[in-house]
């Protein structure tokens, strides 16, 4: 029996027309192998055998292979289009994040007289979410009612997501009531909707009314409580689950990690392993975040070894998590090696490495990687510039920091935020350019926060400048009374200058009040255990 590669050249040399069935079979074979050029050649050579199904397959193949323009051109050439053709075109425009194109494509389909089905409306609603076009959700709902599709589970679930996206709690409940045959999916969508809107009480009430619950239902409730910052409630629901899958475990572990409960995340990960549930790359990413949060290099290395043994391929998310973990745990060279081994890097990967160098005081290396990032065509964001400016501050690169601060808006269109100003104040303060730091604060378009004032206080304290320290202390005290650093810094400078005067009693009282409030923590790691030591600062 001849293989596909041998049959087709033979056919093309003899210029014979294939039957529709044979053409479909051969083109499907090429599409499965990812060979779209030969599939298209065969498609073009047999115009009389092409049917609408084959046109749809070719368009879908172009979309799946990220060739939207070829898909659009082929769609425009179609002699006849069915609902699948339009759905494929709409999904292609959705994939490239073109909500305007999706909407106008939908309107064009309606002008042809073709009625959308439930999948058309579902794709349309999904494409409008988190865009300026989400205001059209009520219009889509009206269309669904006129087409008698609003009772469908598929359309109803999509509409519920749409109304959550526009913050309409009342419409969310109405859409749910319109669904004729409610299944566990629609109930889950309602619970998730209330959770996303911050109405945990209503979500819990609906959860209690559910005639049937599955692992997704329980996980949805857990995730909702985590999103609302109610970690203890989330764990309570998690502990009541009779069945857990990898998603359930990962959601709870991630919730702990993102809320700073790193040890709880690591303990839960150990329970997961004991339960026999195999982690996926999302689980490992959350666990690495917890290792980074408590600066546990030993545990981080053990998790890395576990990843290698598991055989899970290192995608860009997992590799970036490894870079971030090693950088935050003090092994910046390991972070660089992981980064260099990554076949594909995204903006988050670059930010993790640049931020790692900045935290280690390696400002020059941070700037080198920033330049390399720009050369390969990755566009920086506000996080990138926080890392770059922080690197400049730690390395004392004042002129370079000033250039990057200006370039942030002039070259990249990123408006400076409070965190960027804090980095610049820190940069000037460390370098002893306190006047520049003070002028920058006064010129800020937004109100400086405690971090900005703290950066100025740190710089003025470093250089024993009483006038600027007093200015910074006043700024902090307006936002946070009896801040512990204020009194200690002022007493230090008064002592150095020998200018106590009548302020001595006031400062001592301030220091006593702040001392009672000030607490600190330190992560202590050995080969057996990691614990956090909390202590009061005398």
Q: Any low-confidence stretches, pLDDT <50, length ≥5?
A: 6-15, 533-538
In the sheet with the most strands, the strands line up as: 1-2
Mean pLDDT: 87
Helix content: over 70%
Bin the strand percentage.
Answer: under 5%
Q: Describe the largest sheet.
A: 2 strands, antiparallel
Shape verdict: globular
Q: Structural class of the secondary structure composition?
A: mainly alpha
> Count of helical segments?
31
- Using DSSP, what is the number of strands? 2
CA-atom Rg in angstroms:
30 Å
The span between the termini is: 86 Å
Features:
31 helices, globular, disordered C terminus, mainly alpha
Topology:
Blueprint: H1 4-13, H2 20-32, H3 36-45, H4 52-64, H5 68-77, H6 83-95, H7 99-111, H8 118-128, H9 137-146, H10 153-165, H11 169-178, H12 184-196, H13 200-209, H14 215-227, H15 231-240, H16 246-258, H17 262-275, H18 281-293, H19 297-310, H20 316-328, H21 332-341, H22 347-359, H23 363-375, H24 382-395, H25 398-410, H26 418-430, H27 434-442, H28 450-462, H29 466-479, H30 484-497, H31 503-517, E1 519-525, E2 530-536
Helix pairs in contact: 2-3, 2-4, 3-4, 4-5, 4-6, 5-6, 6-7, 6-8, 7-8, 8-10, 9-10, 10-11, 10-12, 11-12, 12-13, 12-14, 13-14, 14-15, 14-16, 15-16, 16-17, 16-18, 17-18, 18-19, 18-20, 20-21, 20-22, 21-22, 22-23, 22-24, 23-24, 24-25, 24-26, 25-26, 26-27, 26-28, 27-28, 28-29, 28-30, 29-30, ...
């Amino acid at each position: 029996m001849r293989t596909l590669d041998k049959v087709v050249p033979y056919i093309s040399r003899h210029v014979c027309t294939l039957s529709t069935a044979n053409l479909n079979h051969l083109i499907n074979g090429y599409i499965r192998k990812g060979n779209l050029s030969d599939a298209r050649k065969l498609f073009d050579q047999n115009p009389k055998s092409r049917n609408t199904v084959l046109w749809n397959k070719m368009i879908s193949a172009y979309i799946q292979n990220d060739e939207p323009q070829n898909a659009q051109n082929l769609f425009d050439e179609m002699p006849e289009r069915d609902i699948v053709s339009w759905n494929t075109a709409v999904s292609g425009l959705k994939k490239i994040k073109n909500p305007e194109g999706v909407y106008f494509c939908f309107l064009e389909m309606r002008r042809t007289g073709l009625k959308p089905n439930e999948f058309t409306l579902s794709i349309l609603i999904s494409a409008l979410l988190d865009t300026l076009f989400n205001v059209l959700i009520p219009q889509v709902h009206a269309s669904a009612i006129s087409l008698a599709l609003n009772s469908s589970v598929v359309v109803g679930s999509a509409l519920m997501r749409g109304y959550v996206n526009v913050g309409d709690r009342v419409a969310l409940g109405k859409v749910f009531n319109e669904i004729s045959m409610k299944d566990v999916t629609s109930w889950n969508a309602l619970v998730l909707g209330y959770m996303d809107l911050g109405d945990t009480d209503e979500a819990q009430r609906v959860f209690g009314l559910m005639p049937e619950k599955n692992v997704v239902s329980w996980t949805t409730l857990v995730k909702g409580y985590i999103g609302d910052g109610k970690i203890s409630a989330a764990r309570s629901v998690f502990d009541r689950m009779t069945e857990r899958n990898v998603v359930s475990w990962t959601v709870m572990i991630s919730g702990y990690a993102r809320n700073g409960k790193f040890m709880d995340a690591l303990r839960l990960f150990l329970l997961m392993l004991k339960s026999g549930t195999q982690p996926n790359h999302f689980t490992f990413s959350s666990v690495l975040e917890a290792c980074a949060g408590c600066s546990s290099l030993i545990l981080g290395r053990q998790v890395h070894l576990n990843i290698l043994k598991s055989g899970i391929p290192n995608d860009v998310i997992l590799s970036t998590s490894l870079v971030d973990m090693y950088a935050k745990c003090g092994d910046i060279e390991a972070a660089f090696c992981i980064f260099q081994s990554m076949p594909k890097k995204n903006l988050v990967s670059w930010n993790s490495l640049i931020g790692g160098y900045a935290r280690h005081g390696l400002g020059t290396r941070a700037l080198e990687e920033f330049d390399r990032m720009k050369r390969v065509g990755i566009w920086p964001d506000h996080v990138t510039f926080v890392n770059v400016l922080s690197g400049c501050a730690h390395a004392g690169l004042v002129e370079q920091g000033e250039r990057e601060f200006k370039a942030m808006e002039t070259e990249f269109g990123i408006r400076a935020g409070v965190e960027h100003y804090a980095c610049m104040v820190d940069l000037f303060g460390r370098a002893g350019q306190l006047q520049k730091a003070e002028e920058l604060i006064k010129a800020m378009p937004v109100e400086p926060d405690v971090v900005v004032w703290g950066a100025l206080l740190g710089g003025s304290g470093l250089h024993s400048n009483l006038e600027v320290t007093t200015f910074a202390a006043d700024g902090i005290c307006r936002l946070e009374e009896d801040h512990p650093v204020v009194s200690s810094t002022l007493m230090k400078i008064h002592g150095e200058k020998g200018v106590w005067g009548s302020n001595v009693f006031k400062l001592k009282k301030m220091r006593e009040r702040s001392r009672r409030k000030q607490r600190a923590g330190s992560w202590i790691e050995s080969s057996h255990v990691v614990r956090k030591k909390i202590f009061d600062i005398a």
